[in-house]
Amino acid sequence: MITSISKLDQSCYRFVVKQGQEHGLQPLALSISASGNGPVYLYMAVLFILLDSHGESLLNMLLAAYLVELPLYVLLKNIIRRQRPCHALADGVARFEPADKFSLPSGHTAAAFVMATSIYFTYPALFYIAAFWAVSIGLSRVILGVHYPLDIIAGALLGVASVVLSQHII
Residue 160 in contact with residue 131, Cβ under 8 Å? Predict the structure, then answer.
């Protein structure tokens, strides 16, 4: 069964990468992926603090969730040690060289889903925009060739679970 799941994951990876190449989506994917880099979350939180009285609640939720997510992310990545598709597959391609060599879970996706889930709890009216952005970050990571689709699903689950878990801890 695991072999079947792995083959499906590889097939989906190849399909998404091929679609990205055929439709010239790599430049857009690079921009979307960069919007999920660490400093962007701090800028967004500061912006919410400056614009709204609930901004501080969002910041506190984000800090608590990232304190849960980051150690779990590092632990999972180093226990699972799944090679990135650009390194593991003969036809794997990457638009850039990733910072680390393991792919499961996707850290960009986990962080984006921490943000989107925190926005859901703090600013529910903005949830669909935040969720679309988080999904776009995950998809961009596959288009760029640095993650399999299951890495994205795992990252999304980790991000959502980290927010929910952190809210039960506080």
Answer: no
